[in-house]
Fold this sequence. Notes:
Elements: H1 3-31, E1 39-53, E2 58-73, E3 82-93, E4 98-109, E5 115-116, E6 122-123, E7 126-127, E8 146-150, E9 155-167, E10 170-190, E11 200-215, E12 222-234, E13 240-251, H2 253-312, H3 320-323, H4 325-332, H5 337-343
Antiparallel strand pairs: 1-2, 1-13, 2-3, 3-4, 4-5, 4-6, 6-7, 8-9, 9-10, 10-11, 11-12, 12-13
Helix pairs in contact: 1-2
Amino acid sequence: MRPTSGAILVAAGTFLIVGAVATPLVVAPALVKVPLDQSSVTISEAQNATVLDFGTLSERNGVNLTAHRAVRGDVKDGNADRAVFNVGVRVIDDADKEITLSTDRVALDRRTAMAVACCAEDINGAPFKHEGLTYTFPFGTEKKTYQYFDNTARKAYPARYVSTEKLQGLTVYKFEMTVEPIQISEIKVPGSLLGSTEQVVNAGRYYANTRTLWVEPDSGVIVKGQEKQLQTLRDGTGADKIKIIDADLAFTEDTQKQQAKAAKDARGQINLLTTVVPVVLGLLGLALVLIGVYLVTRAGRRRPEAALVETDDRPTTDLPSQRSPEPAEESTAPAGGRHAAERTEP
């Protein structure tokens, strides 16, 4: 193989090594992003909940609830940097009676998962600017406190790292956030409902929640979500008088498995770009460089021997004209010398 072939191998190997370094630093961040076409449905259930029957204005106890949350990506409003989600949450009881219904539209950074102001974001159809994390955590989630948005309270609260646990065959980070009782609206109700003698009174609607999230850290996927939600009506003194909803909602086992699979798939793609591809490119590139250097060095050592054969080992039959004495004598004799001697003989 010629020296130029070795040089080509060295160049190709160097290119692959550069690619191995660039893949996790440049390529992976450009490709590992929240998908624009996000599509998922999670189901949470609560046993023995308490809800307010607005038809009779009375509490119902021992109710089983199911919450369906659908997340759909708005591809046309997303781009390389942001994703836009349309979200709907419907809570029903065992009789398929609707307890609550809410909608949400939010834009988020595709890498950090933080909410960004964009794209006619709203809550229940009313324009609203989100903040903090929503529906997912960032790639490479850390053991620290994040700001996580609560749609009912309409503000972000600290979600603090609590511990590392095993869930659905994955190592997950557990985060907890607490929403202290906060008034979210005011409604008119019969005074008798709050123990008042007045026919109609204004009642403050208060909301509190303790939310726990189990997050697969590489992908940021929430494998399990749980919340202990309490909504009440308070009288003028600030005392809770009636419960609108009191429920412990948590992802079902099937939803946890679904989320775990999504986390594993995302983690596999991340591992491919950050570990497998760089290692393969690096090893292949190093092999090509070593082979190329060997070929170049070997060719350089053999070249002097080839030159020696060409100069010293040529056949002597190629040089007869250069060794003939006669032309040499003729060229060195004085002009006319031979004939002058012949003329001096008697």
